[in-house]
Specification:
This protein is α+β, with helices and mostly antiparallel strands. Helix content is 41%, strand content 26%. α13 (373-435) runs antiparallel to α14.
Amino acid sequence: MLGSNQPMFVVWGPGRTLVYNTPYARLLADKHPRAMGSDFLDVWSEIRSDLEGIVAQAYRGEPVQMDDITLIIERRGYPEEAHFSFFYSPLRDEAGSAAGLFCACTEITVQVMTQRQLMESEARARADAQRVQLALDAGAIIGTWFWYLPTDHFTADEQFARSFGLDPERCRTGLGIEQVVGTVHPDDKPGLMVAINEVIRRSGPYAHQYRVRRQDGRYHWIEANGRVEHAPDGTPLNFPGVLIDVESRRAAETALRESEERFRAAVQAVNGILWTNNAHGEMEGEQLGWSTLTGQSYDEYQGYGWSRAVHAEDVQASVDAWKAAVAERRTFLFEHRVRRHDGIWRRFSIQAIPLVDANGAIREWVGVHIDITEQREAEAVLERSRNELERLVQERTAQLVQAQKMEVVGQLSGGIAHDFNNLLQGIGSCLAVLGRHVPEGSPRRLFIAAEEAITRGAQLTHSLLAFARRQMLTPKPAHMLPLIAGMRPLLERTLGGLIRFDVDVPPGTAPVMVDPAQLESAILNLAINARDAMPQGGVLTLRADNIAIRRQGEPGCPAELAPGDYVAISLTDTGIGMEEATLARAFEPFFTTKGVGGGSGLGLSMVYGMVAQSGGGVTIASKVGKGTSVTIFIPRASEARALTQEPPSETIPGDGAVVLLVDDDPLVRAGAAAVLEMLGYQVIAATSGLEALKVLQERMPVDVMITDYAMPGMSGVALIQETRRLAPSLPVLLITGYTDRPEGIERCAVLHKPFKPQALAEQIATLLRVS
C-alpha cells in the first residue's frame, strides 16, 4: 500500500482507527496529518451520516462499492473538481471476524470529463443539424416577410398572414411590428422581443421559436428564420425572413424526450451486464448476466471461453488488452462487438476494476458490459450529417457571398448613376454647343476627344449597371441571322487579320426575346475576350442552336435555368484557355487576368448580368491550351417577327417652339438650355417644380415641358402629376440619371442621361407631332 500511486486507507478496530498512504493524504488536504490514527468517522464528520452505513456494512463482512464520487481537491495551487470510485473490502482478524475495512480509491476524472464533453458536443451538433435541415426543407416554409426597419414598415405574404391570424391585405400593404406580434402567446412575447432587439443590435442571422394564435383561436408553434442587414454606418436597414412550421417537430421532440427518460431509467435499473473474473483475469463460477446476454453455457464461458462470443475481428485485441490490464493492475476500458443469444452482433463498452484484499493483492475483477450500439450508430449518422451539413453550408455561403457582391455593386452603381450622369450630361451639352463654333483642326480634335471620353464614361456606367442587373432593357423579338450579319463587319475588324471568324447560324434558328443592342454588346465583349486569348491568331466560331430544357439542371445547361425553350449562342475560341482557379472566378466583377490598363474585369460580368436580367443563363468551359467556350441561353420569342432597323431620323429644327426646362442642377440646366436654343427652341428655365408650376399658373405660353426626375422639394413625378391637372394636354419629357423607370408617369416620354442633342431633338419632335 505504501508504494502504490493509488489512494488507499485502512480502518481498524472498534475505534475505527484510520491509516492511509501518501496519495490518500493528498485527498485529505488540510485534515492531514492529524487524521492519521484518528477515528475515521470523526475525520469525515461533515459526511458522517453518509459513511456510517458503509462502515457498518463493511464491519459486517460485506463489500461496498461507490461509483463517481465528486471531490474538490487542491491541485497546482487551486481547487479542482475530481471524480473517484471507492471500493470498501472488510478486513478480518485471526478469528475470521470482520475487524476493519480496506478501501481502494480509483480516480475516474478523465473518463467522466471526456464523456461529459462528448455528450455536450453531440447535443450541440444534433441541434445544429436539425435546425439547418428544417430550414432547408422547403415544404416546411409557411410564410415570408420583409421588415424595413428605419420606418417600421412590415410586409408579408398571405401564408404569413394566415399563420399569424392577420388580414392578408394589411400584411401586403404594410403594418407596424407591434401589430404583427399582437397574436403571439403572452408567455412567448417577452422572449421574442428580446431576441428581435438583440439581432437588430448586432445584425446577422436570426432564429427563434414561439407560439402564435391562428384564426381558429388555437396557438401553433412556429420558428422564424431571418437576417438583419446594417448600413455601412451601422444603421439597421432590412430584416427579411421566413416562417417554418415546427408544431409537429416539437411534438416529436417531446415524445422523444419522454422516451429517452424511460430508456435512462431502464438502463439505471438494469445497470448493464455485470460479471466477475478471478485474480488472474479468468472468468469462473456462475455468471448469470453474461450467460443471459450471450446464451453461452456455464462450461462455455469459463476461463477465456467468453472470447468465443466476441466478434472475430475484435477478439484478439480484446484478449490482449484484458491481459495487459490484469498484468498492470489497472482499470480496464475497452469496446468490442458481442454476439447476443439471438445471433445479433451488438457493440458494448466495457469497464472493469480490480478488488484487492487487506494485503493489497487482487482478489477478483468486477466488470460491466453496457450496450452502446445505438450510440455508435447515432455517432456515425451524426458524422455523416455533419459532413453533409458542412458541404451545404459551404455551398450556401458561396452563393450568399456572390449574391451580396452583386447587391453591393448594384446599390453602389444605382447611387452613382444619377450624379455621374448629371456631370456627363452637363459637360456633353456644353461641348455639343461649343463644338458648333470650333473650326476644323487641332482644337476640333480636342472637342472630339472630349466627346469620346464622355461616351466612354457613359459606357462604364452602363457596364456597371449591366452586371448588377439594373439597366433598363427594351426586349423585342430578334432574329439571329440578320443580327449577326449586321455585326459581322464590326466583329471582323475587332478580331483583326490573324483570327478567322466562322459563323454557324442555321436558317431555322428561332427569334429570341432580348434587347438587341444589349445582345450585340454581349457578343462583342465575348469576341474581344476571345481575341485577347489568341495573340498569335486562331479561330473564333459563333454558333446558334434551338435548345429545349425539359428539367432544371440538365447537363450542359446553367443549373439555375428554368425549363423552357431557348436559343443557345456560343462563342468558341482556340486560345490559351483558363485554369480551374481562374475559371471559377470568371464572372466575378472587377476580376481580370490582364495587366494594368488591359481591362476593367467587367466584360463577363456585364454579359452575365444582361443575360440573367433577360431570363437566361450562361455557361463557360475552358481547358488550358485548348481554348474557351462561352454559351449564353436566351429565351425564344413567343411571336416570330422580323427584326427591323428603324432609319435614323434627322434633327428637326425647333421653329421657335417654347420649352419649359425644369432642373435643379445649374450645370445640367445651363447645358440643356444651350442645346435647346441651338436647336431653335425658346427656353423658359425653372430651378424647381414650384417655380415651374408658377409659370404654368401665370398662363405663359409653353409648347412642351422637360423636367428632371430627382429634385428637392418636389420630384419630377410630382410635378408631372400636378401639371396634368393644370394643363392636361401639355407634352412632357422626363429626363433622369437613374436606371429604373419611375412609377406614376404613364403616357410620359423618358430620356436617360447622358443624352446627345440628336436624341433630345427627336424626343421633342415626336412629342410635338403627337400632340
